[in-house]
Amino acid sequence: MRRIRISFIFTQETYNEPQIIAFMKRILYFLIILCVGLQSLMAQQVVTVSGIVKQEYNKRALEYVNVYVPGTHIGTITNSDGEFTIKVQGENLPITIEFSHLGYQTRRITVNTRNLEDQEILLTPGVIALNEIIVEPIYPSRIVESAMNNVKKNYSLEAGMYQTFYREFAQKRRKYINISEAVVDIFKTPYTQEMDRDRVRVQKGRRMVSPNASDTLNVKLEGGPVIGNSLDVVKTPGVLLGFDYMTYYQYDFKDFVIINDKLHYAIDFKPRVNIEDIPLYQGTLYIEQKTHAISRIEFSMDMSDRDKVTEYMLRKKPAGLRFRPTSANYLVTYRQDGEKYYLNYVRAELKFSCDWKRKLFATNYTVVSEIVMTDREDAPPHGNIPYRESFTKSQVLSDKVQDFYDEKFWEDYNIIEPTESLEYAVQRLKKANTKN
Mean pLDDT throughout 39-55? Predict the structure, then answer.
C-alpha cells in the first residue's frame, strides 16, 4: 500500500482556546474520514491467489483438488492441469486457504495483504495409522445402508442459495466445437426434501461455437446446469442409492483412504441383476468411517444394454441420425463445513458416436459438464428462484449466453481455471469466427 503523508502548516497567528479545540476537532474528523475511506478501499480490493497443486514426491499435477477458505463458504477446484485461481475480498484478510484431495494430507497456506501468483502447492500422501482402524468385520452393504440412513444427521437441513461456476464443452474427435461457461445460482431445499422445488438460474455466461456447418450436431443430451441438482445423488438417490434399489447391487470393501484428513471406507459397487428399461451403475463410494457420511462417489453407467442407455441419455436428435453411447462417467464430491456436508463438485463425461444412415464411418464425440460450488448463502431471505427465471432441462445453455470475447468477463467471480488445451481451443475458435 502506498504511504500517505499528511502535513499541517501553522502560521504565527494567535489562537484562543476554543479556536484551537475547534481546529483539533476538524483534524480528528478528517482523520476518521480518512481511516474509514482507507478501510473501505481495502474491503473493496479483491485478493487473488493462483498456482498449481502437485504431488510432493513426483511433482505430478493433481486434478480436482478441493480449494477452500475455512470460515467462509468460498471455494473452487483445480482443473485437469492441477491449476487453480481463488479470489477473496480484502476485508477477510488475513485468510487461510485449504487444499484437500483423495488420499492426501490437507495442506494450508496463509494469505495476508497481497496477491499470490504462481504458487506451487505440494500435497503429501495421507498416512493411515493402524490405531485409527478398528479391527472388526466390515459389511459393505450395511455401511452403505447406514450412510443413507444418516443423511438427516450429516447433510444440511436448511435451504440454501449456492453460487456456482458451470462449464460444458463438446469435442468432435479431439477438436473442440462448442464451449459454454456460466455463473449459475442454485436453490437447494433441505436434504430431507425432494428436488422438485430445487431450481437453477443463469446469472451470466458466454459461449464459443465452431462456425463450420459440418461441426453442428443437433443432439440434446441429459445434462446442462441442472446437473448440480440432478446428480446430487445423496439428495436424489434414484437407482444409484435408493433403498428400493440397493438389493440390485453387489458391494465390496476396497480399501481405507484419507480424504480431508479423515479416514474413509472405499466401497466398490456393481450391478448384480438386470432391470428392464433402467440402466444401473458401477463405481466406488467413499464413506467417512465415524459419521458414515458419503463425501465422494465415482461411478459410470452400465453399458451392457446400449439401447437402454440411449433412451435414458438422449433427449433429442435429427431423424436419420444413428446415436451410439460408448461411456458415461461421473464424479460427485461433498465438502464438510462445520458438522454438515454440502455438495461441492459435479462432473459428467459422456462419450458417443454418431453417423447418418448409408455412411460408412461414425464420428466420435465427447461432452463434458462440470459445476463447482463457489459460495453459499444459508436460508436466503428472498427464498426460492422464481420459476420464470429458472433454467430447465429442455433448455440449451449456449442459446442463452453471449459470445466469448470479453477478457475481463468474470470480474471477481470464482471460476474453474481453464486448462491449457481449453484456452488454446478458445483462441482457435475466436480466429475461426472472426474469419467467418
Answer: 77
**Model confidence pLDDT, tens digit, residues 101-149:** 999 999 999 988 778 889 999 999 988 765 665 656 789 999 999 999 9
Write the single-letter amino acid at 291. Answer: T
Q: What is the pTM of this model?
A: 0.87
Q: Report the Cα 247 to chain-centroid distance in Å.
A: 31
Report the C-alpha gap between 262 and 50 in whole angstroms. Answer: 26
Compute the residue count for the chain: 436
CB atoms under 10 Å from CB of 95, counted, come to 20
Three cell numbers written together for 15: 489562537
Which position has the grid cell 470460515?
71
Is residue 154 within 8 Å of 336, Cβ to Cβ?
Answer: no
Distance, CA of 406 to CA of 120 (rounded, Å): 29
CA angle 308, 310, 316 (to 5 degrees): 140
